[in-house]
Amino acid sequence: MTKRTHTCGELRREHTGTTATLNGWVHGRRDLGGMIFIDLRDRYGVTQVVFEPHHAPEACAAAKELRPEFVVSVTGVVRKRPAGSENPRLSTGDIEILADRFEILNRSEVPPFEIRDDVDANEDLRLKYRYLDLRRPVLMRNLLLRHKVYQVIHRYFDGLGFVEIETPVLMKSTPEGARDYLVPSRVHPGKFYALPQSPQTYKQLLMVAGFDRYVQVVKCFRDEDLRADRQPEFTQIDLEMAFVTREDVFAVVEGLVERLLAGILGVSVTLPFERMHYDAALERYGTDKPDTRFGMELHTLTDIMRGTAFTIFAAAVEAGGIVTGMNVRGGAGLSRKQLDALNDRAKALGLGGLVWVKVEDGGLHSPAAKFLEEGRLNAAARELDAAAGDLLLLAASPERRKALTALGTLRLELGRERGLIDTSAHRLLWVVDFPLFQYDEESGRWVAEHHPFTGLYPSDVPMLDKDPGAVRADCYDLVWNGNEIGSGSIRIHDAELQRKVFRVLGLSEEEIRGKFGFLIEAFRYGAPPHGGIALGLDRIVAILAGTPSIRDVIAFPKTNSALSLMDGAPSEVSAEQLRELHIAIGP
Ligand code: ASP
Questions:
Q1: What distance in angstroms lies between residue 233's CA and the mean position of ligand 1's atoms?
Q2: Model pTM?
């Protein structure tokens, strides 16, 4: 094999006259009046190679055999392209190589899809042939960007005195909200390891050990039901710090995001990020991960509607619920059909329906105007800052969260449809003070809103017994353009308090000992106050790469149903393997 002297992205006008050898893949071939043009591709770029019959007749004749994705080594002289035939879209577009000779290093079957950025093959096919899909420049660029992100992370945390420590992949099953992936033990029949949903307990134990600032870019595993754009294994930037308040954690994370945006996109962000209380986020955006790249905020109209003759609203208020509304600027032109569609959508989101109000020059028009008093309607319009041409959407429910989240979802959908989102903007904020627990109707008990190690406001400790739902967690989510990018908290470091929280979560003393005894025990030996966060690396890279799907920034992703289409995992195993693991497959 003649080894390359240059890559396919390297040659420029100043190389004119040099003899170069390139190694790469045939990206495309064009035959033009006896001449053959080859685009040769590697991960650095594409270079045009010309075979001319009068220059190298043998090579030219042999080049007819070249097909897309053949691997070749080509040697020739670099020359300027004839005036007018330069390709400004290629970094090598000013030059071409006049081939003297070439070798075929390997042949390729006809690939199942063309290796082009704008490929039109379905994703399943591309996942099956992921190694070919990864040849596409877009995906290659994404992985190179991901590599750059790793470098920024390692440098940044090293600079701040963080220690990178690996934690086990085979660990004790300690549920953290999702289902564990289990690994059977061969040498301990009937026992299982779990793959980490996160290294949460380990990083806390590292704080007990005294490491004080820990970081790890780490794979985590969660066996969740199908949800769009989730992966059963994903990567977190996991960190933990001792002797800190949440402001210290914020400062570290904000500095990292600032570096990533500056270093990778050349974008600057304003620090510190906005902090928003969970309640305010829910009330103003109908979600705990508000996309603040556009307005159209929700406004609570409960007080205005208290006692109205419009019974749906009155009943919601009476029942301790909420009336909320938002202003779709310039939406008064929506047709009856479009309004009906919005109403159907609201119903699908769990609301009884939507009340719409068109703001027109002559006044307010709404099908609810028969019942809804003019004074209240006007007050609502004022609260929503209505102007002629606007459309107001009002919703009510005895369940506050239901009304807010439904309208919040509509806000996002309308924001997208109406092109209100500035997709070049980067808006980051912290959502803080979530409730510590959420009541789970199905199981009839309290569950942790984040995870059971989350600390709480010291002043709320007495409420653990009386009113768990009112206890505020000392926790925070990082939200980036409406995506929850990270979640963390100041932790419990007191053995008794941790035990108490487990009890509120319905764990018996025996379960506490069995599942978390090691952690509680560690807390008895001088656990420092500590806190941390885990950031979703895949999502961060996806945002930086400007792609909506994390599959586009993971080398070998699984489908939404956790399948690896390329190698067929998960797959059956032999009876012998199962026997060794003491496992019998049920009917
Ligand atoms: N371990 C948590 C998670 O993965 C994050 C944290 O609290 O640090 O969501």
A1: 15
A2: 0.93
